[in-house]
Every structure is written in structure tokens, then in C-alpha cells.
UniProtKB/TrEMBL annotation:
Annotated ranges, domain CRAL-TRIO: 67-231
InterPro entries per UniProt: CRAL-TRIO_dom (IPR001251), CRAL-TRIO_dom_sf (IPR036865), CRAL/TRIO_N_dom_sf (IPR036273)
PANTHER family: CRAL-TRIO DOMAIN-CONTAINING PROTEIN, OS03G0850700 PROTEIN
Name the UniProt record assigns to this protein: Sec14 cytosolic factor-like
Gene giving rise to this polypeptide: LOC111015872
Gene3D superfamilies associated with the record: CRAL-TRIO lipid binding domain
Length: 243
């Protein structure tokens, strides 16, 4: 099995080079995410990797999206970065009642990139390996129609699937109101099966217990944990310093 994976990785790297891109700066863990996302088919994995590289160069030419570029989205204080779960996965919480559809789609897309990049950075133990995953908790408590943003949801999931493959460890959706069920059914048509299998709509105490057990103490008190909410912009990511 290991031999076949190693061979698939080798073939994928060769395919990327034929497409005019280098893989020298990327470890096996990073390459494997794209390979897994394309059912271990080297040519398809290579194509996805190259598309990601091109997208990254266009969307984030400086390597990261700074807070000043997404200030309006951050002002809502709707995203919280809580630290690591019991298994070492970064934990991010979304309070959907504080979100409103953006009039500036480019800024919203940059905000999604800023968010996901910071979540990944918070989950790194030292330096990024390439296979870090996270847990997302999406709280729909007290949302109304003015908070509903199908376009934003679809954009978020498309970014996850196309540019952050195999990053989502688990997504718990809490407090889904009746009117949102039909919206979720529509949005989920744009979500691939690999992502859908990691999404759990929490609808009973047993599912809530599973969430609490999986996340651990970094879960805020209001959700059954022991921590305080930490807004995305207040979360401090300590960079790794080589010895």
C-alpha cells in the first residue's frame, strides 16, 4: 500500500512538472491532499495542484491577506479561533447571526482566504506539514432571513473543495431553524460527497455530546466547554523560530 502511494506521488510530481510547475517546495503531505481529493489519480491530482497554484498566485500575490484588506468583514466579530481540539485540530466557530451578505464579493473571497489561512497557521505544531485539519462549528442560533447568504456559503465550500482539499476534519452545524433546511438542501448540491461526509447537523443531545467530546476544553462555555470566545482578529499566532 505504501509503495503504491509513493508511486502515485512520484507520478503526480512528474505530471506537475510537465504542466510547467515545480513541486520542490512542497512536501509529500501537501501533495497527498490533492492526490486523495482526486481519488489517487496522479494526472488529476497534478491538474488540481496546478490550478491551486495559479489561483493562489492570482488571489494572494503577496502570500497572505492582511487584516486591513478585510476590515469590514472582521468588524462583525463573527468568527472565533479557539485553539486546538483534543486531537490537535484547530477549532473555528462561526456565529451566523452576525453575518450579512457582502456587497463586495472580492473582499468576501479575500476574507475566506484570510480566515482559512489563519486557521491552518493556528493548527501548525512548529511549522506547517501540509496535512493539518480543523474542526468548524457553525452556529445558526437566532439567524433570520437577512443573515442568509447562499452565495457566500457556496463560495466558502468551493474554496474548501478546490483550494483547501482534505483540510476539513469535521463541521458541526448547530441550531438549524426550520426555514434554513430548504436553503441547506440547495447549498449542499454544490458540496462534494467527501466534504458532506464530514458535516454533522447537530439535532439531539447525543450528537451534541459527540461534538463536546471531540472538541474538548477549548469549546466555549456556552457550547459545553470551558473556554472563552476568541475573535479571529484577537487570536495570536506565534510563528515558528528555527533553532
Amino acid at each position: 500500500m505504501e509503495e503504491s502511494r509513493a508511486n502515485a506521488l512520484f507520478q503526480m510530481r512528474k505530471s506537475v512538472e510537465k504542466l510547467g510547475f515545480s513541486t520542490e517546495a512542497y512536501g509529500d503531505a501537501t501533495m497527498m491532499r490533492f492526490l486523495i481529493a482526486r481519488s489517487m489519480e496522479p494526472a488529476k491530482g497534478a491538474k488540481m495542484f496546478v490550478q491551486w497554484r495559479k489561483w493562489r498566485e492570482a488571489m494572494v500575490p503577496e502570500g497572505s491577506v492582511c487584516e486591513s484588506e478585510v476590515a469590514e468583514e472582521l468588524e462583525a466579530r463573527k468568527i472565533f479561533l479557539q485553539g486546538s481540539s483534543k486531537k490537535g485540530l484547530a477549532v473555528v466557530i462561526v456565529k451566523a447571526s452576525r453575518h450579512f451578505p457582502s456587497k463586495d464579493q472580492l473582499q468576501f473571497k479575500k476574507f475566506v482566504v484570510h480566515l482559512l489561512d489563519k486557521v491552518i497557521a493556528s493548527g501548525c505544531k512548529g511549522r506547517e506539514i501540509g496535512n493539518e485539519k480543523w474542526i468548524a462549528i457553525v452556529d445558526l442560533h437566532q439567524i433570520s432571513y437577512k443573515n442568509v447568504d447562499p452565495r457566500g456559503l457556496i463560495t466558502g465550500f468551493q474554496f474548501l473543495q478546490n483550494y483547501y482539499p482534505e483540510r476539513l476534519g469535521k463541521c458541526f452545524i448547530l441550531n438549524m431553524p426550520w426555514f434554513f433546511v430548504s436553503i441547506w438542501r440547495m447549498v449542499s448540491r454544490f458540496v462534494d460527497s467527501a466534504t458532506l461526509k464530514n458535516i454533522l447537523i447537530v439535532s439531539n443531545e447525543e450528537e451534541r455530546r459527540i461534538m463536546i467530546e471531540e472538541v474538548g476544553e477549548v469549546l466555549p462555555v456556552e457550547y459545553g466547554g470551558k473556554a472563552k470566545l476568541i475573535a479571529l482578529q484577537d487570536a495570536i499566532i506565534i510563528p515558528h523560530l528555527d533553532a
